[in-house]
Records
---
Amino acid sequence: MVITLNLGALRRTRWHEYLTRFVLGGIVTAVTGWLASRYGPVLGGLFLAFPAIFPASATLLEKHERAKKRKAGIASTIRGRLAAALDARGAVMGALGGMAFGAVVWRILPQSSLSAALVLALVSWLAISSLLWYVRKHHPWKRPARSKPATR
Amino acid sequence: MGQLIIRFLVGGAIVSAFALLGDALHPKGFAGLFAAAPSVALATISLTAASEGRGYAALEARSMIAGEVALVAYAVACTYYLGVRHTKSAPTAVLLLGLWGAVAAAIYAVALS
């Protein structure tokens, strides 16, 4: 499986959808900072892993997938929900990698520069999340796909 | 107030950048990793380390690990409801934020406070 970057897919997203995600991300970051200054870093830190834009992204994904299928003449609402579920499954692996991000910053940051700690944490997040995704995708104990019964 | 505006702008920009990357990546299963990218953490830790010091930011990062456990529970529940029960994305993803809050609060009460 080759991972590709399809910049054409960005054209499907409207400007107000980009704006929604910018505002949601900005609000969560600002509120997290306010919580940490009001109640301390231990409580505020929990919100570093708040699913800030997942609801907006999943909704967009369902909407775009439904529109794509409708254009192709398929009137099904389930495909969009399955696409959102696939995104959520990826988020499970992203969150497991996020634990590595937090652990690296926690242990490394007090002894090193900010940029070094963040680069190392980001690399750890991407490496662990990608590895989990790869193992999930290609694991040797994967059940074979059910084949259609032969017709005569 | 100025600090909050800076956090809003930096957070919005970093979250948007990761979301754009997620939109453009293929296959979609891999792009899903970016739905849980540490974008808010990246913005917050950078700004906090500069204003409050690296030790303070490291403490936030330790709590982030607990937040990520809650995020795993949230994403597993979303996968189940969307993929198996075929519920609508918007209400499912919004209502399950309560599950994130419950798991995060439980870990905070048991292990962090």
---
Amino acid sequence: MWTVASEDLERYTRAAAAAAGLEIDDSWWPGVVTHLGTLLARAASLEGDGIEMPDDPAPVFRP
Amino acid sequence: MTPAEAAHLDGVAIAEAVRAGTRTATEMAQESLDAIKMGDPDINSFTSVLAERALEEAARVDAQVAAGRDPGPLAGVPVAVKNLFDVAGQVTVAGSRISAEDPPATSDGPALARWREAGALLIGALNMDEYAYGFTTENSHYGPCHNPHDHSRVAGGSSGGSGAAVAARFVAVSLGSDTNGSVRVPATLCGVFGLKPTFGRISRRGMYPFCPSLDHVGVLGRSVRDLAVSFDVLHGYDPDDPVSLDRPPEPTEGRLDQGIEGLRLAVADGYFARGAVPEALEAVATMADALGIGPRITIPEAGRARAAAMVITAAEGAQLHLRDLRTRARDFDPMTRDRFLAGALVPASAYLAAQRFRRWYRGELGRVLATADVVLAPATPFPAPLIGQREAVVDGETVLTQPYLGCFTQPLSFVGLPVVTVPVRGTASGLPLGVQLVAAPCREAVLLQVAAELERRNLVTL
């Protein structure tokens, strides 16, 4: 799963932003990296004991 | 009846007076417009006031009454909509500077059209967080929306204008949208009722999207019956909304006087019993004690559900704005820009993990809610923060104010459950707080039934 080691995160953010055609101003950089790190950490936290994740996500969500 | 007395009527009472001919819709529209002119400079809940349209609609309602026809259950009721709903002839700005350059909408969205057909008078469009990405309505383009109970505090968000305009009695009822709590948080912080129906119950067509797999339309009002009548008018299948639920309408108004006898009520414990200031948790306990609710129920993995909701929200929200993020990121509100940019960089594997978790979690909640008809939980972790306040201390830990406001709402909307928030007053702060009533999908009627009982027993405080 995704890790949030700062140097890896910065490398990933720069590469992904360049590939996506996004220019990130220097003044926005700390905020963007912090938010992305938080999101990746949250995604990494989703697997836990007793959680049997189904293989398929619901493509059109129905409650 | 004086204008001051009329301002204390709820929507149903206004409609009764207009239908009976004791008040005119034109009077109601004018009194609403006067109240906004007098009070909204201090609140900033409206981004546009549509006086001409409101008075035209009022004249139409008055003509129907004069002709002996029934204008509908919301006859002459002043209403307003979050400025992400299409209003014919108006630009749907969605709290942004970028979308303010779009052409005007050619027609009202279906939700607003249904309200209009029921006799409601559209007074204007309401302030919000840019593209609905926030919980405080501190909008850098249109200014912050101030809480009517304390102007130094936020109104909540993202439907902050919708909460403030109802609490300030500028309008009786308002429309908002709720993706992670954006109806329930402002309803709570402004001290009014909020209804977030089941996902897909009210058509989202004509509503600027934020996060398509989580977006709901919701209603804010000053009485339970206003929510019920509004929901009854608004909900129903729309084949042009791909997530609309294809099931017959299920009216709720007739259920409001049925009491709670025989209903299985419970209180959410675990995640929902910590992580908040004491008065937010006391509000739930007080209500539970008054209703004699003993059972406690555990909603498993609510913290992870919140985490997954954040990942999905960021990824889907950014995808909608990718072109503008590439070409004009400077035009975004600084309050949202960093989060949209980060969301654009979320890898697909993270997004899909969140969706897979969601499917598991939906199954778990289905099992939990098979054991209770209505579950009580806190609505927000604290009352309205100060405008500009970035951090708060909860249980000795410092949290970021804005995202943390949604800690109790996100795990529930994440799987589309219907929720009603009822207002109470904090014992320590004296500021509004709220309690969420939660049920299984499509059980809005039972939620409103319980909320009406709380209202009858004077357990709510506007």
